[in-house]
């Protein structure tokens, strides 16, 4: 069993965090490896060569900026004026019309939103601000978008905390489709992997017991009348323990495949995880 050992912590800027993609393991990459170890290297190469962001990524980051940091940070996002006159709606991000509008308006792809997406971010912001429990959690955090880098059992690892304070509170914001629930999202995307890794990272960085760290998800739906749900992670629940075992097993498998210089070596260790992924 892997022992979690963090050391040499450092706080990172956004530029440093995203520029080190592939050099450091993250929760999302670890899940990707566990899901498909044989295709992991090809996936990493494709991500490195694909600089065009997805709608989900840009809208998610824009919503985070507005909800967690306010108008000053959200101001970097601009509306891409790629309007389909026949439908009255914006063209998609992967269309020639969108690319032409970006060039005409001199907007970087990472900072471009359709008018509908821009308005959606505003609606989600207001919904969160109208939710007492969500506002209380966010306003209790004085550290926004903190990225920590350390070592996870000898593997270079980094994670970005949406919001936290120095008293043991971590808050993570998630956007989701209309009709979804927070628990459904936690189960579907294995978000407890993230909770376990971030609690472990945070507790070692700030020298406190993991039991003294609280982790809360704030979920907000992307719809005309967004719904907000706050879910507190229970570290005593069996599902959290399963996530801990899964993370440690995935790390063991990754290390083994790198030692053997053959991703097939990971398959034996990862076999028991497949039913959870």
Characterize the structure shown.
With 277 residues, the chain is of the alpha+beta class. It has helices spanning 14-19, 27-35, 40-49, 55-69, 71-74, 96-105, 115-129, 132-139, 182-189, 191-205, 238-259, 266-270; strands at 10-12, 78-79, 83-84, 89-90, 112-113, 143-152, 155-164, 169-177, 214-222, 228-232. It is built from 12 helices and 10 strands. The protein has a 6-stranded mixed β-sheet, with helices on both faces. Strands 2-5 form a two-stranded parallel ribbon. A two-stranded antiparallel ribbon has the order 3-4.
Topology (SSEs and partners):
Elements: E1 10-12, H1 14-19, H2 27-35, H3 40-49, H4 55-69, H5 71-74, E2 78-79, E3 83-84, E4 89-90, H6 96-105, E5 112-113, H7 115-129, H8 132-139, E6 143-152, E7 155-164, E8 169-177, H9 182-189, H10 191-205, E9 214-222, E10 228-232, H11 238-259, H12 266-270
Parallel strand pairs: 2-5, 8-9
Antiparallel strand pairs: 1-6, 3-4, 6-7, 7-8, 9-10
Helix pairs in contact: 2-11, 4-7, 10-11
């Amino acid at each position: 069993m892997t022992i979690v050992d963090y050391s040499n912590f450092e706080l990172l800027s956004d530029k440093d965090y995203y520029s080190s993609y592939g050099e450091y393991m993250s929760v999302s990459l670890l899940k990707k490896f566990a899901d498909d170890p044989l295709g992991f290297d090809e996936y990493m190469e494709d991500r490195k060569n694909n600089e065009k962001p997805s709608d989900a990524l840009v809208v998610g980051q824009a919503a985070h900026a507005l909800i967690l940091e306010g108008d000053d940070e959200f101001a970097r996002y601009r509306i891409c004026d790629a309007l389909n006159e026949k439908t009255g709606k914006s063209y998609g991000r992967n269309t020639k019309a969108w690319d032409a509008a970006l060039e005409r308006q001199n907007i970087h792809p990472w900072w471009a939103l359709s008018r509908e997406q821009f308005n959606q971010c505003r609606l989600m912001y207001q919904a969160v601000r109208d939710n007492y429990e969500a506002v209380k959690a966010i306003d209790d955090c004085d550290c926004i978008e903190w990225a920590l880098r350390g070592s996870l059992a000898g593997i270079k690892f980094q994670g970005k905390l949406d919001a936290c304070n120095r008293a043991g509170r971590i808050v993570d914001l998630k956007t989701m489709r209309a009709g979804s629930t927070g628990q459904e999202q936690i189960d579907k995307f294995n978000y407890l992997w993230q909770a376990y890794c971030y609690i472990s990272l945070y507790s070692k960085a700030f020298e406190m017991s993991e039991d003294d760290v609280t982790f809360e998800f704030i979920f907000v739906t992307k719809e005309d009348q967004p719904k907000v749900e706050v879910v507190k992670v229970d570290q005593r629940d069996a599902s959290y323990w399963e996530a801990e075992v899964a993370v440690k097993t995935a790390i063991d498998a990754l290390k083994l495949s790198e030692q053997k210089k053959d991703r097939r070596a990971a398959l034996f260790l990862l076999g028991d995880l497949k039913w959870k992924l």
